[in-house]
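Write out the 3D structure for:
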Amino acid sequence: MRQPVAAVAAFFIAAVFLSSATAGPNAADGQKVDACLKAGTENGASGVACIGIVADPCIAAASKTDSYIKDSAACAARELAIWTTRLQRAVQSASKGGGKTTATAVAASQKSFMDSLAKLCPLLDKVDPGMALGGSAYCRLHATAIRVLTLERLADAVNPH
C-alpha cells in the first residue's frame, strides 16, 4: 500500500534532523521567531532577517567560553528545533493544497533537499570551528529556515484563504 506523499516527506524530515534537534523547540524561542516573522510580514519583509534570531546571540555568548564549539552547536540546535517543527507543518500544508501534482513535487523536492543537507552540512564540522560556529547544526538551521519560508509561501498560495 502506498503511503501519502506528505507522510513520506515527514519521514525524511524527521530522519535527517533527529540527531541535530533531539529536543523539542523551546516555547519562548519559538515565540521569538514567530514574533519576528509576524513583524516582517507586516512590513513586507521575507523573513530572512529572522534566521538566527535565537542562535546568533547564544553563539556570541558561547564564543566567550572554553566549551564554545559544543555550546555553539547546541545554540544552533536550539533554533533548528523551531524551524524543523515549522518545516513539518509547511510540508503538510503545501502538500494538502494544490492537488496531487503539488504534493508529489513537494515530496520529491524534500527528498532532494534532505539528501543535500546530509551531504553538505557535516562538512562544516570538519573545518576550523572559528570559521563556522555551530557547525553542521547551523548549516541545517539556515537551510531549513530558508526552506520553511519558501514552503510557507507555497502553502499560502495553494491553500484557500
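The chain has six helices and no strands.
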